[in-house]
Amino acid sequence: MALSIRKASVGEEAAVLSFYENLIDEMRGSPYPLRWEKGVYPAADDIADAIRAGTLYVAEDGGIVGAFIVNHTQGEGYANVNWLWQGAATQVAVLHLLAVAPSVQRRGVGRALLQFAAGRCRADGSRALRLDTLPWNLPGKRLYEGFGFQYRGDVEVYYPSTGQIAFSMYELLL
Q1: For 6-27, what is the mean pLDDT?
Q2: Distance (Å, whole) CA 134 – CA 167
Q3: What interhelical angle do 13-27 and 44-53 show, nearest 10?
Q4: What is the pLDDT of residues 116-143, one digit of tens each?
Q5: CA nearest to 66, candidates 33, 108, 14, 121
Q6: What are phi and psi of 73, to 5 degrees?
Q7: d(CA 95, CA 71)
Q8: What is the pLDDT of residues 65-82, one digit of tens each?
């Protein structure tokens, strides 16, 4: 596998959205289904905004096989978590839409994406990297915990594609 990770470029919006929409289709009916919904989350505007902001990254190996957004946007429920890092919110990075194509899962792509994101966040001066995941996402939880993220509890969060449900919250001190 010749994996490369880079910032997505303006003009790639359709390809990135297609990656996520294909993933939604491929994961339907799996033991760990996504709660993402085409046209709702991720939406084309979310992808375009993240690319313009320079916060969306893609992993490629003959095409997009992984992606994520990392920024400083914490969801509403994040205020209800007992985080390890209690400093300035500007020093907190948040990982969104981390995804790996089923065809390359269990080949180190997820770990490579986390390494890349953590490295970028450290370089930008962030002191913590946070994320939320669905409580039944056992492969994701194993990945995060194996990488060093600490579980900080389940907290109710509202997202348009899921409604109000409990999400498992994770934090990595950088």
Answers
A1: 94
A2: 5
A3: 130
A4: 999 999 999 999 999 999 888 999 999 9
A5: 108
A6: -95, 110
A7: 7
A8: 999 999 999 988 899 999
pLDDT for 85: 95
Write out the E strands in the chain: 4-7, 56-60, 64-71, 92-100, 128-133, 150-159, 163-173
Mean pLDDT of 87-93: 94
Q: Where are the beta strands (DSSP E) in 34-108?
A: 56-60, 64-71, 92-100
Q: 153: helix, coil or strand?
A: strand
Question: 């001190």: which residue's tokens?
Answer: 173
Q: Rounded mean pLDDT of 10-38? A: 89
Which of 108, 3, 98 has its CA nearest to residue 50? 98
For residue 135, cis peptide bond before it (omega within 30 degrees of 0): no
**Better-predicted residue by pLDDT, 106 or 57:** 57
In the chain, what are the domains?
A: 4-173 (3.40.630.30)
What letter represents residue 154's amino acid? D
Is the previous residue joined to 42 through a cis bond, with omega within 30 degrees of 0? yes
